[in-house]
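Box 3.1 — From sequence to structure: diguanylate cyclase
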Amino acid sequence: MEVASHFHRVILDSVPHHVAVINSEGTIVFVNQAWIEFAQLHQQKHEWVGYSYWDVCNQDQTVVSALTKMLQKQADSYGYQYHYHTGQQQRWYQMSAIAIDYHGQRFAVITHVDITEQKNAEEEVRELTLLDSLTALPNRRHFTQFFDQEWRRGIRQQQPLSVLLLDVDLFKQYNDTYGHQMGDQCLQRIAALLAQFAKRPGDLMARYGGEEFVLVLANTDTSAAEKIANKLVNAVLELKIPHIAIGIESVVTISIGVATLVPSQQLAATELLQRADKALYQVKKHGRNGFKLAQ
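Predicted structure (token representation):
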């Protein structure tokens, strides 16, 4: 029996994850070597056997309640993810618990697995799904999520929300004249400039599709939105990207439709976008290289 017990300890000590076993009172009766080494690394030098697991989890009532149900035979397993600060670094862990019955007693085997790399990979994938691959700006999906969020915030706070819908003038002709590679570079230069105009947490500049971009400005009234639109038009002009097909200016220009509303339960969020789109159409219709406020 002693040989078997030693053999089981050797096995558990070879596991790289942190393992602890608690009894029906929540008292730790076993920890493996990985648990001890992690604790020592972070200056936690308890004599773990006999220590309360409730103190390990800082008396987190959600965890305590879930494990108590397991130990009272009301559940067989439990798990959750949490982050842990190690100095300047944040690590993510998956805590899993499984109930076992041994010699008429109830125990829980608890493991803590470092899932930081998995979490980082998930975050990278999430970011890739929300970013436009050409311009590195937020894509339309990201815009939709952000816009809906700001619309709801505007309803709660009754603050104006402005949208600027931007279009690169005669971009098809630019591609026809200079080629698609130069067209991509043109969009990248413009996108890098436009990104500088989303300065606050409630601002977002996104690629709306093709040569269209959209700027969301939270808590921004018509007057402030108009000033930003004017700056955007002039800033793109100052890039001086050659465009011989455009006429007098001979450089790339943009047109902008500007719309501002105080969000309301009686209005659909799309109403603001539709107004900006109509204003943009009017700019394109009457000469481009400018902006117009929605009526």
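Summary of the box: The chain has ten helices and ten strands.
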